[in-house]
Each structure stands twice: as structure tokens, then as C-alpha cells.
């Protein structure tokens, strides 16, 4: 659950950074640097979440209508 | 209802009552027994939540009930010990005898085809008889109303059907009867007509409408699956699902034949109650209309109409799409396709991240290049204006340029290394940025120190003759007018005397 929130939020933040860069006519180096650092961190986070994570599998019982 | 369990509970109650010498209802009322069956308590908390069971009763009977409900072996063995053979040395009461008979009759579970020759539908149950077309023999049948509704078939006299169930002696009447658990239509034509009729009905209600369909969630994680754990479907599905950290919960259910309806319903309701999935997947391999019967069952179809999360149907079929799939939020025709549908949003996001990364770095890199060009150009202009006076200026310019080049190189490198995300990457990035900042700062200081304007403030001045800066006496003659620039302005002056050092 936490992974999921992180990924969605990270993507949103990454999007915001991309948008910021795309909107600037002239990128301020200081401000750009700060965002690049954030962006790189987010990319790292997202990629880690998307790197192979084993699935969990379990069988559960029917609770109702277990009519045989 | 789980009849085997219900019988066990009843037997236990009777035995306990006998042991304590009280009426059976003193142990647990029928209502409480019914609740136990419905809830299927797994813990003390769940059991105590049932009306009629308090701490006191729990202490007395709790463990026995929990063991029975959760299939404790000891009680199963006790159950197995109940004889199904009659013993000529024992004098039976009618009730005990019928219990014994019904118990052995229950093993004769069967599917029987015949024609409905009489039908009597009463409140919560119905009677009908099934006639053999060739030898005219008759089977009396009994069926509970809810089993009837679940079958999704409207019985009528003269109709050819297949019933599933087992024989028993109906206690209130003492008559032999076939306890019908499910009834289904027979014959391609009849099945097709039932399919078409239900399809038209559901369509009219707008249940197939595209506006009703919910999109599969982005990045689904908790997947509920209903299928047969014995079938090929689950294997195909698991072989094709990506490794994105899915949490897959499977409820095993029959997926073929009319009797599957109850199990499928139970499975769907279990997931509805648990409320801990992002998406429900129901799947099975392909089959004929007859084997897909449960997926054209109205009760089952309506169960997913308002299911709290999107439902994905992966049901193989030949010609007529199962109505269940048409009502689901998304249908695919194989378990493999179902797995791929779940991978979709995860795979898309991988590309999106790569793209974002490229965009950010290239925009920033470009802006650094631009800055570098601007600085170079400015320096060029300054250099032209004050050409040879301040040689050291060039050195400062060089190092500032160098700083920007190395900053850009640094980012190119970081961008390149990002896919490897080594542990030292950010330490490296930090270090480089500090270094570059230092280098830029010192270059700026150097530039400031050697800024020609600043030199003017120190008392130096720039002398121009015409447009040329005067560097030596050969450039001027007596009585020439020269222009002299000082820190806050300029003035013209006349050469009066020239002397060489």
C-alpha cells in the first residue's frame, strides 16, 4: 500500500518538475539545480519501485455460500 | 448452506443437551445456530458477536463450536463414527432412523434428466415431479426457493431439465423425495433461447452500456482472483503476470456446470465482504455454452453489477460471449490477456519515467549551454572594449567558461549514471556541485577584481584618440584632441607636450 502511494506521488512530483522545466523560457541555474536533484531522487525511487518485486500469492477461503 | 456442518452442529447440540439433561434450545436457540452457520466464526471475538452467545456460553461451548466450524479433526472423526448401517439389535425412534437413512441416501448425489410433469411453487420452497419420457416413471423433487432462484431457470410443466441433488426422506411428510440443489435447461436450442432472452433483458436495463464500465485502476496491486485452482487458467495467468509486487488472493471455485454458481457467488461475496482488493479477476478457459452455463446465470451476473471495485472477466468462449463478461468492466478472452491487462499501467509508467528523466536533464543541459554562450559573448564584448589593457581578464574568463563546461559534463554524466543508480551517485553529484560553485565564485571574484570599470575607480583612465585606445606615444601628436574616460564620465583634452620615458 505504501509503495503504491509513493509511486503515484513520486510520479506526480516528477511531472511537476518536468512541467516546471518545460515552462521556463530561461532556466534559473540555482532553481534548476535544486529541481534536478529532486528529480534525480524521484527517478531513482520510481525505478526502484518498478524494478522486479516478487508477487505475493495466497489462497483464501470462501466465507459465505460455501455450499457443496 | 453447508449441510454437513449444519448436521454436525445439530448432532453436537443434541448430544450436549442430552448430556446436560436439558432441552436442545437451552444450549443454543435455532436462531443462534443459524447465525453460527451464516457467520462461520473463526475466533472468540467473532463467536461472541453472535446474538445469544456471551462470555459464559463461550467458556462452556466456545471451543467446541470453533472446532466444528473450522473443521477440527477430532469432531470429524466423531462424525465419521456415526453409523450409516442399521443395527438390528437397536430399537430406533422414527427421527433417529430417518437421520440414519438420509445420511446414507445423501451419498447418492446425481444429475438426472427428465420432463417436469407437475409443479407446485410455495413460499420458501417448491415441489415438482420429474417424468421419464420413455418409461413414464416419476421422481418427486423438493427444492428450496433460494436454490431455485440461484439456478436462474423459470420452471414450467412440460419443460425438459437436468436436476442435481440427492435423495432423502422428507421428514414432515415421510415421503421419498429428491432434494434438488440446482436445475438447468437442456438442449442447444433451449440454452440459446434462454441466453438471448436474458441478454435482451440485461441490455434493456443498460447493463452492457459503455458508460457503466469502470477503467481498471492504475497500478493495481491487490488482485482478487476467482477461478479453479485445478484449471489451466491460473497457471497461464501467473506465467504472464509481471513482477510488480502484486498481492494476489485466490479463491478456488468450480467454474463449470450449474453447481458452480453457488461457489462463484460465495467467492464474489467473500471478496465483497473483505474489501481489500483493487480489482477482481474472474477467469476460466474456453468452453461450450453448456459448460459456460454459470456465466450466463442472472443471479451471478447481478452480483457484479455493483461490485465495489472494477471486475475483469477473462473467460474463454466459442461463439456467444458469456453475459457475465458483457456486464463486467472489462473483458478479455484468455487468462493470459487478463494478466497482460494488469501489467499495462505498470509497463506504461516505466517509459514515462525514462521520458521525464530525459526531458529534465536535456532542458537543464541546454540552459547551461545557453548560459555558457551568454557569458562567453559578454566576455567577448568586454574584451573587445578593453582589449589589451587587462590581460589577466582573459584568464578569469577562461576559468569561468571551464566551470560551465565541467558543470554541463557533470550533468551529462549524472544523467548517464542514473540508470545504474550507484550508491555514490548523489555524493558525487553533491561534491561536483560544490566544486563548481566554488570555481564559479572564484571566477566571479577574479572577474570583479579585473573588471576594467573597477580599475577606473582606482584612478586609472582610458585615453582614446578617435576610436582607438592610446597605448603609446606614437599614436598621438601635439595639438591632437584625445578623449579621456574616468570612472564617472569622460572629457576631451588636448595634447600639449609629448615626451618619451
Number of helices of chain A: 2
> What would you call the structural class of chain A?
mainly alpha
- The secondary-structure class of chain B comes to alpha/beta
Number of helices of chain B: 17
**Total discrete domains of chain B:** 4
**Helicity of chain B, as a percent range:** 40-55%
Biggest chain contact: A-B, 48 and 58 residues
| Biggest beta-sheet profile of chain A | none
- Average pLDDT rating of chain B: 83
- The overall strand count of chain B is 14
- Portion in strands of chain A: 5-15%
Oligomerization status of the protein chains: heterodimer
Helix content of chain A: 55-70%
CATH class of the largest domain in chain B: Alpha Beta
End-to-end separation of chain A: 35 Å
Keywords:
heterodimer, A: mainly alpha, B: 501 residues, DNA polymerase, domain 1, OB fold (Dihydrolipoamide Acetyltransferase, E2P), Rossmann fold, five-stranded mixed barrel, five-stranded parallel beta sheet, 17 helices, 18% strand, elongated
Amino acid at each position: 500500500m505504501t509503495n503504491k502511494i509513493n509511486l503515484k506521488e513520486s510520479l506526480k512530483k516528477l511531472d511537476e518538475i518536468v512541467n516546471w522545466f518545460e515552462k521556463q523560457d530561461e532556466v534559473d541555474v540555482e532553481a534548476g539545480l535544486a529541481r534536478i536533484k529532486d528529480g534525480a531522487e524521484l527517478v531513482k525511487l520510481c525505478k526502484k519501485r518498478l524494478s522486479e518485486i516478487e508477487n505475493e500469492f495466497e489462497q483464501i477461503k470462501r466465507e459465505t455460500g460455501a455450499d457443496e | 448452506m453447508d449441510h454437513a456442518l449444519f448436521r454436525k452442529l445439530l448432532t453436537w447440540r443434541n448430544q450436549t443437551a442430552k448430556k446436560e439433561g436439558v432441552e436442545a434450545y437451552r444450549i443454543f436457540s435455532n436462531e443462534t445456530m443459524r447465525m453460527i452457520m451464516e457467520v462461520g466464526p473463526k475466533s472468540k471475538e467473532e463467536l461472541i458477536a453472535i446474538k445469544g452467545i456471551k462470555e459464559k456460553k463461550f467458556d462452556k461451548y466456545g471451543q467446541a463450536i470453533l472446532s466444528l466450524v473450522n473443521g477440527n479433526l477430532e469432531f470429524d472423526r466423531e462424525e465419521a463414527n456415526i453409523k450409516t448401517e442399521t443395527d438390528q439389535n437397536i430399537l430406533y425412534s422414527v427421527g433417529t432412523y430417518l437421520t440414519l437413512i438420509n445420511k446414507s441416501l445423501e451419498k447418492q448425489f446425481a444429475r438426472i434428466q427428465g420432463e417436469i410433469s407437475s409443479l407446485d411453487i410455495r413460499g420458501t420452497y417448491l415441489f415438482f415431479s420429474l417424468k421419464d419420457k420413455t418409461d413414464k416413471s416419476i421422481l418427486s423433487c423438493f427444492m428450496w426457493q433460494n436454490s431455485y432462484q440461484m439456478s436462474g431457470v423459470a420452471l414450467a410443466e412440460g419443460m425438459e431439465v437436468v436436476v442435481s441433488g440427492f435423495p432423502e426422506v422428507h421428514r414432515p411428510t415421510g415421503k421419498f423425495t429428491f432434494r434438488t440443489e440446482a436445475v438447468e435447461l437442456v438442449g442447444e436450442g433451449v440454452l440459446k433461447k434462454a441466453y438471448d432472452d436474458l441478454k435482451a433483458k440485461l441490455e434493456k436495463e443498460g447493463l452492457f452500456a459503455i458508460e457503466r464500465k469502470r477503467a481498471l485502476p492504475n497500478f493495481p496491486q491487490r488482485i482478487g482472483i476467482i477461478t479453479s485452482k485445478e484449471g489451466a487458467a491460473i497457471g497461464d495467468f501467473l506465467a504472464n503476470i509481471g513482477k510488480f509486487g502484486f498481492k494476489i488472493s485466490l479463491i478456488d471455485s468450480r467454474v463449470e456446470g450449474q453447481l458452480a454458481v453457488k461457489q462463484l457467488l460465495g467467492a464474489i461475496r467473500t471478496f465483497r465482504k473483505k474489501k481489500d482488493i483493487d480489482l477482481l479477476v474472474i477467469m476460466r478457459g474456453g468452453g461450450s455454452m453448456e459448460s459456460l452455463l454459470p456465466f450466463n446465470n442472472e443471479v451471478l451476473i447481478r452480483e457484479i453489477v455493483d461490485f465495489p471495485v472494477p471486475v475483469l472477466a477473462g473467460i474463454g468462449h466459442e461463439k456467444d460471449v458469456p453475459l457475465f463478461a458483457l456486464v463486467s468492466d472489462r473483458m478479455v478472452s484468455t487468462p493470459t490477456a487478463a494478466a497482460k491487462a494488469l501489467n499495462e499501467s505498470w509497463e506504461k509508467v516505466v517509459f514515462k519515467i525514462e521520458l521525464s528523466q530525459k526531458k529534465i536533464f536535456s532542458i537543464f543541459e541546454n540552459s547551461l549551454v545557453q548560459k555558457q554562450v551568454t557569458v562567453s559573448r559578454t566576455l567577448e564584448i568586454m574584451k573587445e572594449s578593453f582589449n589589451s589593457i587587462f590581460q589577466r581578464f582573459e584568464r578569469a574568463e577562461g576559468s569561468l567558461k571551464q566551470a560551465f563546461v565541467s558543470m554541463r559534463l557533470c550533468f551529462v554524466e549524472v544523467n548517464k549514471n542514473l540508470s545504474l543508480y550507484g550508491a555514490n551517485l548523489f555524493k558525487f553529484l553533491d561534491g561536483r556541485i560544490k566544486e563548481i560553485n566554488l570555481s564559479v565564485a572564484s571566477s566571479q571574484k577574479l572577474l570583479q577584481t579585473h573588471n576594467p570599470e573597477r580599475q577606473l575607480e582606482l584612478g586609472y583612465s582610458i585615453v582614446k584618440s578617435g576610436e582607438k585606445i592610446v597605448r603609446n606615444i606614437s599614436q598621438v601628436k601635439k595639438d591632437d584632441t584625445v578623449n579621456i574616460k574616468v570612472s564617472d564620465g569622460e572629457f576631451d583634452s588636448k595634447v600639449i607636450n609629448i615626451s618619451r620615458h
